[in-house]
């Protein structure tokens, strides 16, 4: 059943049909659009009004208080991965300082290490399987090491080393049913190895560093995000794999992926500050763009029950997106040699410039209708949350008129992480979140004020 949905998509793509274009409509990176972005950036800097509306003031008013925060301190370097131990007041951390530590909350309310293990190389990724107490730690040297953690979390025994990569391991996942450990690395490949024999089963190379990984355990499909901004969908077999399709939409490296196997949604976060939701299960190539962060999106987590997406960015911003409403797709940007409102030629349209004795204008795009417009016909800015624009973007004058005040109601809540977040993971059942920052501090958040009540009662955004 699952395979069917995916095959539909890739057939679509190959045929290059019109509706498949929609799939890749979101901000497809052509030269003209890149230039547009640069123009927009320049304009934002010069224009304090635009800058304010997109920045601090607006954002502050949206901040919500999330509950208690516990801190775990003591690492000598950045913590590259951290996870909450299910049903325990405990955290496992893997750090660039070469340590794996298991922290348990003591009666004092503070977290103290019960396991402290030093590795031969900095730790870069981690996967933990709670029922079997198996932990897989990826290292900067490309190796993955497997350990077994004791029931009381006081001991960790070495099991195996997997020569998975030639270079830094970026992501790991473990599948108990097939006994596979699947990983991606900075050697530009995905590899999958047998945990019984410790042997390499298969490998597939990409054109750039593979940065993140999600896996559908039931159908053996892997999603791999890379530094070029592409997401590759592969079907893994025992000793071989096939590339199903590539998803292109981001303009910067993919930093995080989240696959929801129930609703069959893929979320991707990127260094272009944006998130895209790829509706794989919908089979129509529908994509939604979410723009609310002002820095690289570093981690995402989708809460399927309440249909909320939690995302964290490098500037410390934490966003909780309401995905339980029918959002609209951002339009594809239209191409034109003249403004589609006032018909004045753009500056590369030499013929019309000559004919009409006018100076060519710069091309911009209205984010709401996608039309190519000149600056004069798009002087206004507006947020438009239903299309994912949580901060103000360029819209044409007629679209601006069509946006009512209630259309500007935010469909996400924004919170301040107060450290530059490099990694995040959640224990969804308890509404807990753990973030790691460039400040070497690990924070454990009670997110129930924003997601917890919703776990029982459904979404309430305010
Ligand atoms: Zn115009
Ligand atoms: Zn418009």
- Identify low-pLDDT runs: 1-36, 38-63, 453-462
Q: What is the level-2 CATH architecture name of the largest domain?
A: 7 Propeller
The third-level CATH topology of the largest domain is: Methylamine Dehydrogenase, Chain H
Strand content: 35-45%
Task: Name the shape in a single word.
Answer: globular
Largest sheet: 4 strands, antiparallel
Whole-angstrom Rg? 23 Å
Overall mean pLDDT stands at 85
Full CATH superfamily name of the largest domain = YVTN repeat-like/Quinoprotein amine dehydrogenase
Strand order of the largest sheet: 1-32-31-30
Number of domains: 2
State the helical fraction.
10-25%
Question: Helical stretch count?
Answer: 8
Task: List all distinct small molecules, including ions and cofactors, that are bound in this structure.
Answer: zinc ion
Euclidean distance between termini CA atoms: 38 Å
